[in-house]
Amino acid sequence: MTPSQALEALAWNLDLRAALSREATQAILMLPYRFARLDRRKFLIREGEPVARCYLLLSGFAGRHKSTGDGGRQMLAIDIPGNIVGLHNILIKRASYNVQVLRDARVAIVAASAVLALTIDYPDIARAMWADTMADGSVLSERLLNIGRRDARQRIAHLVCELAVRQEAAGLGNGPEYEWPVTQEELADATGLTSVHVNRVLQRLRSDGVLRIGSRQVMIMDWERLKAIADFSPAYLHLNMQAQAVVRADACQIWGVSHHAPLREPLAG
Amino acid sequence: MTPSQALEALAWNLDLRAALSREATQAILMLPYRFARLDRRKFLIREGEPVARCYLLLSGFAGRHKSTGDGGRQMLAIDIPGNIVGLHNILIKRASYNVQVLRDARVAIVAASAVLALTIDYPDIARAMWADTMADGSVLSERLLNIGRRDARQRIAHLVCELAVRQEAAGLGNGPEYEWPVTQEELADATGLTSVHVNRVLQRLRSDGVLRIGSRQVMIMDWERLKAIADFSPAYLHLNMQAQAVVRADACQIWGVSHHAPLREPLAG
DNA sequence: CGAACTTTTGACAAGCATCAACACGTGTGG
DNA sequence: CCACACGTGTTGATGCTTGTCAAAAGTTCG
Known about the structure:
The structure is a homodimer. By secondary structure, chain A is of the alpha+beta class. Chain A starts with a helix and ends in an 18-residue tail after the last helix. In chain A, about 50% of the residues are buried. The first copy, chain A, has 9 helices and 9 strands. In chain A, strands 1, 2, 3, 4, 5 and 6 form a 6-stranded antiparallel β-sheet that branches. A 3-stranded antiparallel β-sheet of chain A has the order 7-9-8. Chain A binds a DNA duplex through helix 7.
């Protein structure tokens, strides 16, 4: 994805949240940006600092996280290509979380002031972004339910489901297989577990034949069973179904294991 | 608090999020509303249904929650007087959580369409509400950290701190003492624990002399220690300090146990 | 005064954390 | 090209935190 394609995707995504006028769309496509490649572990945003830049993620993954005083780390969300990093903190004085690159990323960097100017000139853009902030809150809520009330197996399965549907909706899917953005330690951070326990749960999910998972790829072997384990239903993502193949994915019509591309990497399990 | 006072408080709170024009403020004060008293357990909003009304909470408390398929319940947030219930779901098709009355409440009911009309006519109102949605996301993030990475004692202490600061900031404080909105079972729902365990942790907090807590009142005996236990720092609330006594409260200057009103109810501990 | 809810208590089990060590793969520099 | 270091994944032993189940005691309200 090139930056200009990304700007188109951004306009498209926002338009699905709230209809944009032609002029608003044009204005988005004219956003000044700077291209950059960012290595794994690079911080995009630091908790407590003002948000000066937004990052349109073109490829790779980024993780939002916060830490406790004694060093415990909690990942709040994983951003995938197409997401705008930083947008949801743009109107408050200080960033409420860190954002760090999980997989080497390419980004289009846009000045926060440019985004803010856009929202002032085009109220429909502000509205679409506000709706996006609300949808993000909905995802945080579901994650709270996930971590507060589901056990380790369910939590992990739920995250696998979420990333599957989101990547599919973003056009990044490859049948039942998709790119896995985190190490087991990061998965532990995301699920409120330890990496040791995550490792054991993953082994059980593998031996149960539910999924194959390596360090860079996941393949879902039995979507219905995974969904059942995870207690997953995608409504909380507030995806706009017309956009992509989510409906089909969730209905498991394109996910027959029969017609998928060969694994690009050997997977345990 | 009467409804019209509540509308003033609303305008004031929004103005702190983003400056409102005089006309915008006037428009808020002219919002048509209907007054109502709501009993404990009454649902204001149900997950999955469209949000048709917003509720300006005048007195009492409300809890947002979601449930897993097998009945586990997770409380996401507790709304206190002055909060607008439903605002953060107003632009997405369906409510992402339930909202239920925790303590008999008085509310001003405003049609969602009226709020939306306001945000269209006055972009500064939209901006202030968007900022409020962002601050709400920040609170959800901290709660995720709380539940994902802190133990039972810390989680409970953290919630006590949060409610103390928020009630103080809303002008509902009474020195180190404030109204406690939840039963132990609901506290368990909010912290991702069981009520049995919550009960035991509360007993320890009492016997440690950190706080006194009954079913309707809490009194914080040692704010500094409670803060330390909870790993609490109020920045994530994104309160506007100029509004209220938060700074003082957090600096523990008005919280000397010496000058507070007598307990309105006997407290265990 | 009784019904419904809430708090408290005890015994026991289980899930998950902790600690420590080892295996494995990958990239890097000698 | 090999040796090495580093990050990541895997395994085992052990114990603590928290959940589960069941019942009693206390509280609120009609």
